Amino acid sequence: MDHFLYRDAELHAEDVMLRDIADAVGTPFYCYSTATLTRHFQLFTEALAPLPHLVCYAVKANSNLAVLKHLGELGAGMDVVSIGEYHRARAAGVPGDRIVFSGVGKTRAEMRAALDGGIRQFNVESEPELDALSEVAAAMGATAPIALRVNPDVDARTHEKISTGRKEDKFGVPLARARDIYARAARLPGLRVVGIDMHIGSQLTDLAPFEAAYTRMAELTRQLRADGHAIGRLDLGGGLGIPYTRSNEAPPLPTDYGAMVKRVLGDLDCEIEIEPGRLIAGNAGILVAQVIYRKEGEGRDFLILDAAMNDLIRPAMYGAHHDIVPLTEAEPGTPLAPVDIVGPVCESGDTFARQRPMPPLGPGDLVAFRSAGAYGAVMASEYNTRPLIPEVLVCGDHFAVIRHRPTFDEMLSRDTLPPWM
Q1: Half-sphere exposure of residue 360, counting CA atoms within 13 Å on the CB side?
Q2: pLDDT tens, 27-62?
Q3: Hey, what CATH topology would domain 4-31+282-412 get?
Q4: 103-274 has which CATH code?
């Protein structure tokens, strides 16, 4: 469920008509719903109760400070994968003891900064990283709380580019070597083992891969405790999928996920950490764009929008589907015709949809890309010297710009000419 609904044939974000935002800030722009962010976060906290748990929002999904601050005020922790994301979480008011640092390529400088600023735990992905963190922490006279990310060799059956839990993927340490690596971690100075971490992929629409991975995690927990390790936290990662279409696609609900977690892991007396990003932010955001031209081609028509692949790259990168709807609802019975919906960037890949059935639309009409709140704005670029587009947050009948559209002068001022020019 989200809070983007038609009222009197006009699409609204909560109680704000999206056309009013378009008039105020121009197009294209991203718009997020505070009510949807709240509801999706609360679904997870309710699903895991009464187990002790912390929902650590995956900052990489949508890292706008206003989004982070709102979730932090609801009690969310943060899962970060760079020191930049760490600084965003801290700037949003999230304390270090609610921040988990993941990622395969943490540098020593990042480790030092996180230890200095406060950290809940490092999810360590390799033996070289383990050695580096030990050296950094020992040199600082600090103790780094760690969980090893263990690769369970479970196929998440999701898109190739977002599957992370198979043995051929770059993430984590092999399950078969986990006990030896934990023994080594226990001997290294500056480290304190606190738990186990697993994350098998993103946009999962079936609970079976999760259950297979968590069953292996439960077995490993018992083995490690028998080896003398104090395993008090189980970091389950994120990955639960969202519906990107309004058809029959129905990923499992957080309540179903929570019931499975309790059944598989509930008897271990561990604090559960989960790291949802897409499910919290994805359907909490849309991208609004305007039709520039309707072009008749050889055997097909094109809607050319003012949004492009640099604004929303998921269709070009993953072949991802987003429902695209007009801001003014078509009357019942309006005939639909297939069109290619494209952007103005000089790439054939700048195509959002091919032969998508749409009502009649022409220059000046506004459309909304649903389910664009995750991996939209954060993956945007200034390719073709196109400004990053505004982000807007709605709360009830109010809205505010939470990232402005830069001017061309602001963009150009970031370049510096060498002294000989």
Answers
A1: 5
A2: 999 999 999 999 999 999 999 999 999 999 999 999
A3: Lyase, Ornithine Decarboxylase; Chain A, domain 1 (2.40.37)
A4: 3.20.20.10
What is the tens place of the pLDDT at every residue in 315-367?
999 899 999 999 999 999 999 999 999 999 999 999 999 999 999 999 999 99
Distance between CA atoms of 166 and 283, rounded to whole angstroms? 28
**Confidence (pTM):** 0.94
Q: What are the φ/ψ torsions at residue 368 (nearest 5 degrees)? A: -125, 135
Classify 355 as helix, strand or coil. Answer: strand
User: Which of 56, 270, 346, 395 is an active site residue?
Assistant: 346
CB of 123 closer than 8 Å to CB of 164: no
- Give the per-residue SS3 of 4-31: EEEECCEEEECCEEHHHHHHHHCCCEEE
56 is catalytic: no
Closest CA to 233 of 87, 122, 118: 122
| Dihedral angle over CA of 213, 218, 220, 225, nearest 10 | 160
Name the residue type at position 392. Answer: V
CA triple 125-275-89, angle to 5 deg:
90
Calculate mean pLDDT across residues 287-316.
Answer: 96
Q: Name the DSSP class of 240.
A: B
CB-based contact 275:238 (threshold 8 Å): yes
Contact criterion met (CB below 8 Å) for 257 and 48: no
Q: Which of 4, 16, 26, 1 minimizes the C-alpha distance to 326? A: 4
Is the pLDDT assigned to residue 74 strictly greater than 60? yes
Q: How far is CA 251 from CA 19, 264, 275, in A?
A: 31, 20, 17
Question: What are the structural domain ranges in the chain?
Answer: 4-31+282-412, 103-274
